[in-house]
Amino acid sequence: MKIVSNTSPITSLAAVRQLELLQQLYRHIVIPQAVTLELTGAGPAVPGAKEVQTFGWIETRQVRNQALVQALRQKVDPGEAEAIALAIELHADRLIIDERRGRKIAASMGLKYIGILGVLLEAKNSNFITDVKPIIDDLIAIAGFRISPRL
Prior knowledge:
Pfam families: DUF3368
Oligomer: single chain
Number of domains: 1
Protein name: PIN domain nucleic acid-binding protein
Shape: globular
Order of helices and strands: EHHEHHEHHEHEHH
CATH topology: Rossmann fold
Number of strands: 5
CATH architecture: 3-Layer(aba) Sandwich
InterPro entries: PIN-like_prokaryotic
Distance between the termini: 28 Å
Number of helices: 9
Structural class: mainly alpha
């Protein structure tokens, strides 16, 4: 299964010590160079910065289609733009992305996506975690994660 991730799912899950769920569920994830730079450029204080440099199951790849990246950057940040472009290039099974605008663009380009809440539900259904609510509470309290009132 080919999985590409944007920055915020990695930082949020790392902040609440649940990043390993991505490995348990998907075994291997790919991130674009811009995501790596967003994570590591601000220093080791960013949750996930150390992990993307040391975990072998997180692979950084360069996006080839820079014209697409530039077009997408008119609408979303560099990490999202490269994550969407890389997911297209790799024919990814899923893109892990939480930002609403990025999800809309991904869907309009025919990509399947999932957010952190979907990842947590998959982890629960796969018996990697027993309860979703405590992790959601931690995401809100520790990682500043925002959830739509509709959810």
